[in-house]
Design a protein that fits this description.
The structure holds 2 protein chains of 2 kinds. By secondary structure, chain A is of the alpha+beta class. In chain A, 43% of the residues lie in helices and 15% in strands. In chain A, strands 1-2-4-3 form a 4-stranded antiparallel sheet. By secondary structure, chain B is mainly alpha-helical. In chain B, helix 4 (63-94) runs parallel beside helix 6. Chain B is elongated and about 80 Å long. The chains are: A alpha+beta, B mainly alpha. The interface between A and B is medium-sized, with 20 and 28 residues.
């Protein structure tokens, strides 16, 4: 009887371990997911920098590296600009669409649709191709 | 058995002086001792007529037992708690309400289970073998205490679980998801309770 209980509990523990690993994925998957969340957070920093809310409006910079564009900008910005993509180190893609509209993009390792679904700011996120995610912004709608 | 020292010493002296058990019982009853207490005190000494009286084995307390059983106990509690966490997170995933935070708790729980699961199994099987070889271990007071504390915690957990379920029923929150999660707690706590209860029963021959 007790042996049976012990076996049942061992099976339950084994099941929980296997089930848990199937749901969250292995170490490789976790590493990629971590990179993707780093990319999202970097893009958010860039987006905030480019929106530059609360400051007088001026035309968007020609290049991302111009960090004088928005004075008093967030402290993490310099890291994002120097380190670039967490896996490749390449700078993030910045598309200047007009004097006020822009998008900053990154190529994700995992499904960007999932990442977008889990994000709190979904309406500033657009998907390009099937592995690229962009944060879009337009200063035109803002008064200053 | 006889923790009451005066009584125990009296019984020993009386036996040594050659009094019969019936005489001792009569004398102690006259003095106001209850029959269970008298029986306990007499049981502390072997029936065989021998002078001085032969003591029967009593419960033992050893630091090594404390190490083994406290370790087993902690591993069990840690493992059981995280087993519940992982299983409940899996229930959330099945019902598609899991968020980013549940991945983290599943990873942590799985890490704990990978360590504590085999560890508990090894400690328990090792203890079984030792008990089979040396039944004197059944008299370990620490072993008894740890088992009873485990039973108490398991019982309290099941109690809280049923209260939460009834409360959810009354507030109208009793969804299938909730029932499954409550069931997870019940199965884990109930399993531990049943296991240690059988453990106590099995050793009955003392």
């Amino acid at each position: 009887m007790n042996k049976l209980l012990l076996i049942c509990m061992s099976v339950l523990v084994g099941g929980a371990i296997i089930g848990g690993l199937v749901v969250v994925g292995g170490p490789q998957h976790a590493r990629l997911a971590q990179q993707d969340s780093q990319r999202l957070s970097d893009l958010r920093t860039l987006h905030t920098h480019l929106m530059c809310l609360g400051h007088p409006r001026k035309p968007l910079p020609q290049a991302l590296a111009d960090d004088s564009y928005c004075p008093g900008t967030r402290s993490g910005l310099r890291d994002v600009l120097t380190q670039g993509d967490p896996a490749t180190g390449a700078p993030y893609a910045y598309h200047r669409l007009s004097d006020t509209a822009f998008e900053v993009c990154a190529t994700l390792a995992l499904d960007p649709a999932e990442a977008r679904k889990a994000a709190f700011d979904q309406d500033t996120i657009a998907l390009r191709a099937n592995d690229t995610l962009c944060f879009i912004g337009d200063r035109a709608g803002f008064v200053n | 058995m006889a923790q009451r020292d005066e009584l125990s010493i009296f019984v020993r002296d009386a036996l040594a002086a050659g009094k019969s058990r019936a005489e001792i019982t009569a004398a102690l009853t006259h003095a106001g001792w209850r029959s269970a207490e008298v029986q306990d005190a007499l049981n502390g000494w072997d029936e065989m007529p021998f002078s001085p009286p032969i003591p029967r084995p009593v419960a033992t307390v050893s630091a090594r037992d404390f190490f083994t059983y406290a370790l087993t106990f902690c591993v069990l509690i840690l493992g059981a708690f995280n087993l519940v966490v992982v299983l409940q997170a899996l229930v959330d995933v099945v019902f598609a309400t899991g968020d980013g935070g549940s991945d983290r708790s599943i990873r942590w729980g799985v890490a704990v289970l990978i360590v504590t699961g085999p560890m508990y199994l090894w400690l328990t099987l090792r203890e079984r073998r030792k008990l089979a070889r040396d039944p004197a271990l059944y008299r370990s007071a620490i072993r008894k205490w740890m088992i009873y504390i485990g039973l108490l915690l398991a019982a309290l957990t099941m109690l809280g679980d049923s209260i939460a379920t009834i409360y959810a029923l009354l507030t109208g929150d009793l969804t299938a998801q909730f029932v499954l999660k409550a069931l997870v707690v019940l199965v884990v706590a109930g399993g531990i309770f049943a296991y240690y209860l059988r453990d106590l029963r099995e050793e009955a021959p003392s």
